[in-house]
Write a structure and sequence with these properties.
- Helices cover 37% and strands 19% of the residues.
- Helix 18 packs across helix 19 and helix 20 packs across helix 29.
- The strands form 7 sheets. The protein has a 7-stranded antiparallel beta sheet with strand order 14-13-10-11-12-15-16, with helices on both faces.
- With 1093 residues, the protein is α/β, with parallel strands linked by helices.
- It contains 37 helices and 39 strands.
């Protein structure tokens, strides 16, 4: 039992949707918290709006509320569930801000509930810039010279005192949102303006520039008896000026002297004590001047942070798990280390290896965006690798990112040393590769240091890598000893093959000839001082392997690698469920993944964890080691998204059994010719399409099927590179781009179905029986990527006849493709000439989809667990008998569930500082999702909007600006808004149309017309000045019109919900109508799933 016996139930506040700056590392920490509390016999109540995470599965809490994380809803939950305490330090900035709001509203005192982990005074001392600065001074530390500002005038005056450049840091934001470096007043107005808006306390700190200094972080833990441990030190390779989440980082810190490290350690311990974080973890950031060693304390997070997940995976010390135990009264010396089973958590971890984290970016999704890295975080994911040396860990981490150009190469064509020196001076995602190539082309360490301020030690290590590459290039046949040296420095077979003009297969054969294979070492938290009992492995070209022998048959699960847009936490969710299900079925489970943020890379999710890059070479080596350790049943590649699917064919060719749907079946669904034949044989319709290898072929196809057409490269995920094209010129531009995305693959061209309803189906098939898990209807019309469209389950405009037709079509496709497990199919329903509904098949994906967690939660049936079991030969009939699926029939949604996408528009700016456009299209851009569940569509949709940072107004004013083709459809929802008492503001064309339909609105000037002679506001002014609470702006077809773009950008900057489709407008009106006179009803997922239909 917990030491504090008064804690009987705890409300855990989650972090909400995955956003840049707050990703699935908080799913990992929250899941650990729920597991610890329940193991201690404490009742767990959870609020989190994110359906894609493991922690919101009903099995992890006693009452799971998938609701918007707002103080009003948390109060309702407290009144209903009466928790003893609230744990808000494991849900990122979202949870911490929610706790602060509850305190400020007097809710904690009024409702008799207390915070554990960190109390309000500690949160304030850590988060409030001025108070924290005073604490640093009190303990004898230094802060950067700074000035607290609450208005733009104060910012301008402060910058004059500090002198440019100045760093802008808003209070209480996450991932550096709203921060930046201003070099002049114009930039200050832009950055500080955003910072003041994003800070919930309208407060920014202006700071003297320490750009170019070295940056370090320490992860610290403290218990209520004042025991303190430093879990991990982390060093940023990029100097100050780049957000730590966007920097390549290394653990432990490698360039600190012992004296410097001890100073940082002592400062950290004094800070955590003075701030008063009595139980739990915190992250403290420092800057060190490379010229004189001066140390400045930058900031602290009085909570488990983004870096905590990295530190946990790097050391094997589970920070979130231990923070939870500390919060309920345990002390560090009372908590056993899971890995050694013989040391307590008060032993500081010691590393005898090096860990490197590399961020992954998605600038290709936002072509207008400025790609310069600043103090505002922009990366969407990260990969981590472990090695016995820095070069080995670095090269493994770079290839783990799975992005063209991320690994070091030595092709100097088209670049000069001078060009690279000038390019690397501006921090971008390619900076390290520019440094490596620049050094290879003769740039000196001094020149590169002058351009980048990257520490000379790291530059010397990169020179060492280049020298090995040069040595390899000088041999036509690589000597055995040089091959050994290259492999122990992290070179992949592919890199060596490029340097020697051979194939990767021939390099692999050379290695096999001399028996050169990696061995696997254990992450043990104690530099091998104590025996490790947890099989958590990393590869190294060392001498002794530590892989344990086993007797039980094992299944290898391939994870999804670093998060990216299009392949996020939803796929990790499916991999984790597979591990749980197969463990229960008696198999040993082996996880291979390289993402430090996720639950799948927790050392106790699977029986064995390999923290390795997901490349064919690295995966084959793990399987080789595991085949020597015991029997392997096969590999599951259909749950982790496109990454493992891309490896399936190579693994099968190497003689490894792929469980579930075969690579041949996967190729059948991807190959349009073969897939077209399946459709023809089964009498199913698809939009007319063609495949083109050249521009001339593409024009012929487009002419035959008529514009507009939907064009995309083959073999991509997340609508990568997908566009709706209206003419030959646009088609030519697209063909050029598509060949860069997937060279040597044809371009797919489909007839674009305008005004069609899109349907998403998830189903299971075992070769005999189909289980239709869910038929979702997209709220946005066809043309918006399914990952970015809101969708509803059950579908609301599908007739029973059409639903039956969808089921028959799904079964035909699953059988024709040869699916064993999950399949996701996208259909479109379009009216034909006789106004009848006609069903078209858009695409079929014989794998786990991103909607699997959503459908599983809406229906109460764990689809990923079922898919994993089907892949090992279990029939759907057996799953029905075991209770994993309903005894009879298909999936039935409990209540009405709406999934809404969360988009990162506020993170990206154009080069001129203005925002990127927020129009939705066929290329996916969302980073995460939320779920609303209710008895009516209107309430469910409204909840989804509140949870995705766009709460719908219940009264006030709305601005409408509609394209010509949308006006007729918008008349009735506009009339409803007017009848509900909203004031409508419209631009000229919309005003005239509504007026002719008998709907009154007030005419406003377009932005391009400027303000009127009497100071009349423009549409953009209305939004910027907070006059309207909702913006409806449907763009005019292809391309960005200046006025529309300015309207949408102003809405994002002001935090006003902005809807860009008519279907979204109608849904919003339904939501407003439903809730105008009442608040949300709440129910836990367990209550919803207990409803008998």
């Amino acid at each position: 039992m917990p030491k504090d016996h008064s804690i009987e139930s705890v409300l855990v506040i989650g972090s909400g949707p995955i956003v840049i700056g707050q990703a699935c590392e908080f799913d990992y920490s929250g899941t650990q918290a729920c597991r610890v509390l329940r193991a201690e016999g404490i009742r767990v109540i959870l609020i989190n709006s994110n359906p894609a995470t493991i922690m919101t599965d009903p099995e992890f809490a006693d009452a799971t509320y998938v609701e918007p994380i707002t103080p009003e809803i948390i109060e309702q939950i407290i009144l209903k569930e009466r928790p003893t305490a609230i744990l808000a330090t494991l849900g990122g900035q979202t949870a911490l801000n929610a706790a602060m709001q509850l305190y400020e509203r007097g809710s904690l005192e009024r409702l008799g509930v207390r915070l554990i982990g960190a109390d309000i005074p500690a949160i304030k001392r850590g988060e409030d810039r001025k108070t924290f600065k005073e604490i640093v001074a009190k303990i004898g530390g230094s802060s950067a010279k700074s000035i607290i500002c609450h208005t733009m005038d104060e910012c301008i005056a402060g910058a004059a005192i500090l002198s440019y450049p100045v760093v802008v840091r808003p209070s209480f934001t996450m991932g550096g949102l709203g921060s930046g470096i201003a070099y002049n007043q114009k930039e200050l107005e832009l950055i500080a303006g955003a910072g003041l808006r994003h800070s919930p306390t309208t407060e920014v700190l202006l700071e003297e520039s320490i750009i170019g200094w070295k940056e370090f972080e320490l992860e610290v833990m403290r218990d209520h008896k004042d025991n303190v441990v430093i879990v991990c030190s982390i060093e940023n390779i990029d100097p100050m000026g780049v957000h730590t989440g966007d920097s390549i980082t290394v653990a432990p810190a490698l360039t600190l002297t012992d004296v410097e490290y001890q100073k940082l350690r002592n400062l950290s311990i004094e800070i955590i004590r003075e701030v008063g974080v009595a139980t739990g973890g915190c992250n403290i950031q420092f800057a060190v001047n490379p010229a004189d060693g001066r140390i400045i304390v930058i900031e602290m997070n009085p909570r488990v942070s983004r870096s905590s997940a990295l530190a946990s995976k790097a050391t094997g010390f589970p920070i979130a798990k231990i923070a939870t135990k500390l919060a309920i009264g345990y002390t560090l010396d009372e908590i056993q280390n899971d890995i050694t089973k013989s040391t307590p958590a008060s032993f500081e971890p010691t590393l005898d290896y090096v860990v490197v984290k590399v961020p992954r970016f998605a600038f290709e999704k936002f072509p207008e965006a400025d790609t310069k890295l600043t103090t505002t975080m922009k990366s969407v994911g990260e990969a981590m690798a472990i090695g016995r040396s820095f070069p080995e860990a670095l090269q493994k981490a770079l290839r783990s990112v799975e992005k063209k150009g991320s690994s070091f190469h030595w092709n100097t064509g088209g670049v000069t040393k001078d060009y690279l020196l000038s390019a690397m001076a501006i921090p971008t995602e390619h900076r390290l590769q520019q440094i490596q190539l620049g050094l290879f082309m003769g740039a000196s360490i001094e020149e590169v240091f002058e351009a980048t301020k990257v520490d000379p030690w790291f530059l010397a290590q990169i020179i060492g890598i280049n020298e090995i590459a040069q040595e390899i290039q000088s041999h036509s046949e690589i000597p055995d000893e040089l091959l050994r040296i290259a492999k122990s420095n992290g070179f992949s077979d592919l890199q060596i093959a490029d340097l020697t003009n051979q194939s990767p297969e021939s390099i692999a054969a050379s290695r096999s000839r001399i028996n050169l294979h990696p061995v696997y070492k254990t992450v043990d938290t104690c530099a091998a001082e104590f025996e490790a009992h947890t099989p958590y492995y990393y590869s190294s070209y060392d001498l002794e392997s530590e892989v344990l022998k086993r007797n039980r048959p094992a299944v290898v699960i391939l994870g999804s690698g670093p998060n990216r847009i299009g392949q996020g936490v939803e796929f990790d969710y499916s991999c984790v469920h597979a591990a749980f299900a197969l463990k229960s079925a008696g198999y040993e489970t082996i996880m291979i993944n390289c993402n430090p943020e996720t639950v799948s890379t927790d050392y106790d999710t699977s029986d064995r964890l390999y923290f390795e890059p997901l490349t064919l070479e690295d995966v084959l080596e793990v399987i080789r080691a595991e085949e020597a350790a015991g029997p392997i049943v096969g590999v599951i590649a259909q749950l982790g998204g496109q990454t493992p699917l891309g490896l399936a064919r190579g693994l099968q060719d190497a003689g490894i059994k792929i469980l579930g749907t075969s690579p041949d079946a996967i190729d059948l669904a991807e190959d349009r010719g073969k897939f077209g034949e399946i459709l023809r044989v089964n009498s199913l319709d698809a939009p007319e399409f063609g495949m083109a290898d050249t521009f001339d072929e593409a024009v012929k196809i487009a002419t035959r099927i008529s514009y507009p057409v939907l064009v995309r490269p083959s073999f991509v995920l997340g609508g990568r590179g997908m566009e709706i094209v209206y003419d030959d010129d646009s088609l030519a531009e697209f063909i050029l781009k598509a060949t860069e995305i997937t060279p040597n693959h044809p371009v797919l061209i489909d007839k674009f179905l305008d005004d069609a309803i899109e349907i998403d189906v998830d189903a299971l098939y075992d070769g005999e029986e189909l289980y239709l898990a869910g038929v979702m209807e997209h709220i946005e019309e066809a043309g918006v990527h399914s990952g970015d469209s809101a969708c509803v389950l059950p579908s609301f405009s599908i007739s029973t006849k059409l639903r039956d037709e969808i089921r028959v079509a799904t079964e035909k496709l699953a059988r024709g493709i040869g699916v064993r497990g999950l399949i996701n199919i996208q259909f479109a329903v379009a009216k034909n000439a006789s106004a009848e509904e006609k069903l078209y098949v858009l695409e079929a994906n014989p794998r786990a989809s991103r909607t699997v967690p959503f459908v599983s939660k809406a229906t109460g049936n764990p689809l990923a667990k079922c898919a994993a079991l089907i892949s090992t030969g279990v029939a759907i009939s057996e799953l029905r008998q075991s209770g994993l699926l309903p005894k009879i029939g298909d999936g039935v949604a409990k209540g009405i569930s709406v999934k809404e996408a969360v988009l990162p528009w506020n993170r990206f700016r154009r080069l001129d500082g203005t925002g990127v456009d927020s129009v939705l299209g066929p290329e996916m851009r969302s980073t995460g999702e939320v779920m609303g569940i209710a008895n009516t569509f209107g309430e469910a949709y409204s909840k989804s909007q509140s949870a995705s940072f766009g709460a719908l107004p219940k009264s006030g004013a709305v601005f409408l600006s509609l394209s010509e083709r949308d006006k007729a459809s918008a008349l009735e929802p506009s009339r409803t808004l007017s009848n509900l008492g909203f004031k409508l503001f419209t631009t000229q064309g919309t005003h005239d149309f509504l007026s002719s339909g008998g709907v009154e609105s007030e005419l406003v000037r377009k932005h391009s017309q400027g303000r009127g002679t009497n100071g009349e506001l423009t549409a953009v002014d209305l939004i910027r000045e907070g006059v309207v609470g909702l913006v409806i702006n449907t763009p005019l077809g292809r391309g960005t019109r200046q006025d529309g773009w300015m309207i949408r950008t102003a809405a994002i900057q002001r935090g006003v919900p902005c809807i860009t489709t008519i279907a979204g407008f109608k849904a919003a009106v339904a939501g407003i109508s439903d809730l105008q006179d009442r608040s949300f009803d709440i129910a836990s997922l367990q209550e919803w799933l207990s409803v008998i239909e």
